[in-house]
């Protein structure tokens, strides 16, 4: 909790306390979970206007040098060298069994300059992993000390422009360095149009102040971030993704170019090819419980005869969808939308239907 000295504090923690945040532990950090408006209103405000999220628990790594693209191509199933300038791409660190160690976003900032955004819970391991691999390449891995803010929602661009931040040239999954020590991408974790900005603490305080003076903008906590990403069908590492899951099972093969599937030399490539040749035994799917009872992570799934067929990895209520939403893994033969299964919630069998993802339509600015 907020007073727990073993948890890391966000650089802007005083701002969150002043805003009335309730804190909780997440990935080793003391994080704002909700603000006085509450999770339902925070969620809907982001869908309708602009949510401001402090995601400084996540980590930015600058990877530079003549071997930077080759290093990333070894570490991830990505051809970093063919990315266009400013192009961002979802990718992964895999282990030798093709298990997902982390999901990342890599952005090409220049010929030999890339930004890697990693998840909070894996930041220390990711840094060690990348630095160990970098010894074989002419490349430098530099963890950045930045505040990281996400500005998400249909009025995000207008709010940033009103705060003096020019965004017009950026489209979805592109990122730039708009000024010294700043990194800004048009991306996010809500399914809405939005931006993520890594910047020095002083600049972040100034930007947050300008944004929050705009009636369209509110602080949004981790609880609504979770319900927003779940409605959008976006994975959380440590729940929906883990070293026990692979990109094929996770329905994320769209992130790996076909030529790399066939001949890539990234860590885990042979194991992934074997999985693809055989076909994954299970698949990540959307799940829509009947009624109003949410089905939470960890709930086992069974077929009509009571045979175990999978488990829920994320679940809750979808304020925009208007019903409970969940994701999980089921036997590949049962992954077709409309298949009825049953979740065990504290001994009660809740009917759930396999559902197409996302539960709410993505509204990214792609052009």
Could you characterize what this model shows?
By secondary structure, the protein is an alpha+beta fold. Among the domains are: 8-56 and 146-231, 2-Layer Sandwich (Gyrase A, domain 2); 253-355, Beta Barrel (Elongation Factor Tu (Ef-tu), domain 3), CATH 2.40.30. The protein is built from nine helices and 20 strands. The chain has helices at 13-18, 39-48, 68-75, 123-134, 156-162, 201-212, 222-231, 258-263, 269-278; strands at 8-9, 22-26, 29-34, 50-54, 59-64, 88-94, 100-110, 113-118, 140-143, 147-152, 175-176, 183-185, 194-199, 217-219, 282-289, 300-302, 308-318, 323-331, 340-345, 348-355. Strands 11-12-13-10-4-14 form a six-stranded mixed beta sheet. A hairpin with a 2-residue loop joins strand 7 and strand 8. Helix 2 (39-48) crosses helix 7 (222-231). The longest helix has 12 residues, at 123-134. The termini are far apart. The mean pLDDT is 97.
Assign the CATH architecture of one domain.
Answer: 2-Layer Sandwich
Intertermini distance: 42 Å
The number of distinct β-strands equals 20
Report the total helices: 9
Q: How much helicity do the residues have?
A: 10-25%
The proportion of residues in beta strands is: 25-35%
């Amino acid at each position: 909790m907020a007073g727990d000295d073993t948890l890391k504090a966000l650089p802007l923690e005083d701002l969150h306390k002043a805003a009335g945040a309730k804190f909780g532990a997440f990935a080793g950090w003391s994080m704002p979970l909700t603000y006085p408006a509450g999770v339902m209103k925070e969620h809907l405000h982001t869908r309708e206007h602009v949510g401001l999220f402090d995601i400084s628990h996540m980590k930015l790594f600058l990877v530079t040098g003549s071997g930077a693209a080759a290093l990333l191509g070894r570490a991830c199933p990505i051809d970093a060298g063919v990315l266009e300038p400013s192009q961002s791409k979802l990718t992964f660190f895999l282990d030798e069994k093709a298990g997902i160690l982390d999901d990342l976003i890599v952005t090409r900032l220049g010929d030999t300059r890339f930004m890697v955004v990693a998840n909070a819970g894996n930041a220390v391991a990711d840094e060690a992993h990348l630095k160990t691999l970098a010894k074989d390449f002419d490349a430098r891995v530099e963890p950045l000390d930045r505040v990281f803010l996400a500005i998400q929602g249909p009025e995000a661009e207008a709010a940033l422009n009103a705060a003096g931040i020019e965004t017009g040239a950026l489209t979805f999954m592109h990122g730039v360095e708009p000024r010294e020590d700043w990194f800004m991408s048009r991306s996010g974790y809500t399914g809405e149009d939005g931006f993520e900005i890594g910047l020095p603490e002083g600049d972040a305080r100034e930007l947050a102040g300008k944004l929050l003076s705009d009636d369209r903008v509110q602080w949004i906590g981790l609880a609504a971030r979770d319900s927003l990403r779940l409605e959008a069908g976006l994975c959380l590492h440590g729940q929906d993704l883990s070293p026990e899951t692979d990109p094929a099972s996770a329905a994320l093969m769209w992130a790996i170019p076909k030529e790399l599937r066939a001949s890539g030399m990234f860590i885990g490539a042979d194991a992934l090819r074997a999985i693809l040749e055989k076909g994954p035994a299970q698949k990540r799917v959307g799940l829509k419980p009947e009624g109003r009872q949410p089905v939470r992570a960890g709930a086992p799934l069974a077929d009509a005869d009571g045979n175990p067929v999978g488990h829920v990895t994320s679940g809750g209520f979808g304020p925009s969808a208007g019903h409970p939403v969940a994701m999980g893994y089921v036997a590949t033969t049962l992954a077709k939308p409309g298949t009825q299964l049953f979740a065990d919630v504290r001994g009660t069998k809740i009917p759930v239907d396999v559902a197409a993802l996302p539960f709410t339509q993505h509204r990214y600015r792609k052009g």
